[in-house]
Amino acid sequence: MLENRVAYATCPLCEATCGLELTVRGDELLSVRGDAQDVYSAGFICPKGVALKELHEDPDRVRTPLLRQPDGSFAAVSWDEAFAEIDCRLSAILAAGDRNAVGTYLGNPNAHNLATLLYQPVLLRALGTRNAFSASTVDQFPKQMASALMFGTGLSVPVPDVDRTDHLLILGANPLASNGSLLTAPNMRGRLRAIRRRGGRIVVVDPRRSRTAEEADEHIPIRPGTDALLLFAMVHVLFDQGLVCGGGAIDFCEGVELVEELAAGFSPAATMSPGSRRRASAVRRRAMSSTKGWGASSIRPLAVRSTSGRRGSSAPRSTPCGAASSAASESPVSRAPKASP
Fold first, then answer.
1. Where in the chain are the domains?
2. With contact defined as beta carbons under 8 Å apart, do 20 and 32 qualify?
C-alpha cells in the first residue's frame, strides 16, 4: 500500500511565488498547504493556491495534446502526432517568407517554470517573429514600457521595499486582491498591517474604496483618469519646496531639469477642475483624512509626506507603488534605499 509523503513546490500562478507543502499518495494529491518554512510566504497561500488540488483533479484539465478536427471538435493525439502536425503547418507558413505571420502567446506559468524560462527564448528567436504576446502585454505592458524608458529594459521593474518602508503610497493598485503579485510579496494584508504596527503610514489613491483602501490610514478617491495630473502636481510641489534630492543616484539621472520645467505649470491649484478651485477655501478647512475634503490643498502635504520617513536615514523612507494598467496589477515606480541600522 502506498504511503503518504510530503513534497514541496512553488505556486506557479503568480509572481508572489508562495511556497507549497503538498501531501501526496502515489499520483494522488491529498492536500495543499502553505510551506511555513518558505522564506517569502512563511506559510501563507491565497485561495488560488488552495484550489490547485481541484485544478489538478478537474476532469476538463488538458492532459494530452489536442488536435482540432474538421468539424471543429478536438481529439487527443500523441506528442509525436502533435509535433508532426506543427511541423507540417508551421513550416509552410515560415516558408512563405514572412516570419511575422507567426504569433506566440505565453501565459503566466511559463514565467515560473525553469525549463520554459530556459528554452522559451531559444524557440522565440528561432521563429524570428516580432509578434510575441503574453499575459504581460495584456495586463502590465505600460509599466514595463515605463521601466524600459527609465531604466533601460522592461524587465527591470522596481519593487517597493514593503517590509521596511515607513510610508507606502499606493496608486491605482489593489494588492489585497492581487495577493502581492509582481511584488513577490505574499500575504500583503499582513505586510500592510505590519507597516502600521511599526508606526508607518499607508495612503491609497483610488477612485473606488477597494479592500486595500479599507486597510489604509488614508484613502484619496480622485476622479477616474486624473492619476497623471495628481502625480505631476506632486512633482511640482517637490521641486517648488526644494525636496528633490537624488543623493548618489543623481549622477545616473538624465533630464531632471526638463522634468522641473515641465512640472512648473502643474501646481496643485492648476490641476484641479474650475469647480474644485472655487471650493478651495472650503477644502482647506477640511481634515486630510476626510475623503470629502480632497482637493488642491491636499496635494501639497501628500507630496511632502511622500519624501520623508519616520526613521533617520540619508534617503527617504517612503515607497510609492502604483499600477499602470489595472487595479489588480501593481506597478511600483520606485524603491527607497534601505535605512541605516
1. 5-57, 98-139, 167-332
2. yes
What Rg do the C-alpha atoms of the chain give, in angstroms? 25
Whole-angstrom distance, CA of residue 77 vs CA of residue 284: 70
pLDDT tens-digit map of 124-150: 899 999 998 888 787 778 888 888 988
The reply to whether domains 5-57 and 167-332 share a CATH topology is: no
State the Cα–Cα distance between residues 173 and 180, nearest whole angstrom. 10
Q: What is d(CA 91, CA 39) in angstroms, rounded to the nearest whole number?
A: 46
Cα→Cα distances 82→89, 120, 138, Å: 11, 18, 28
pLDDT digits (tens, 9 = 90+) for 52-107: 999 999 999 999 999 999 999 999 999 999 999 999 999 999 888 889 999 998 87
167-332: in CATH 3.40.640.10: no
Return the sign of the alpha-carbon dihedral for residues 308, 312, 315, 318: negative
Q: How far apart are CA 208 and CA 68, in angstroms?
A: 44
Displacement of CA 210 from its chain's centroid (Å): 16
3-state SS of the chain: helix, strand, coil percent to 5?
40, 15, 45
Helix axes of 227-240 and 296-305: crossing angle, nearest 10 degrees: 60
Calpha distance 152→148 (Å, rounded): 5
Cell of 47: 485561495
Note if the pTM is more than 0.85: no
Q: What is the CATH number of domain 5-57?
A: 3.30.200.210
CA distance 8 to 33: 10
Q: What is the pLDDT of residues 261-285, one digit of tens each?
A: 999 988 888 887 654 444 333 333 3
Q: How far apart are CA 106 and CA 117, in angstroms?
A: 11
The answer to whether the CB of 176 falls within 8 A of the CB of 188 is yes
Q: Could you tell me how many residues make up the chain? A: 341
pLDDT digits (tens, 9 = 90+) for 209-239: 999 999 999 998 888 888 888 888 888 988 9
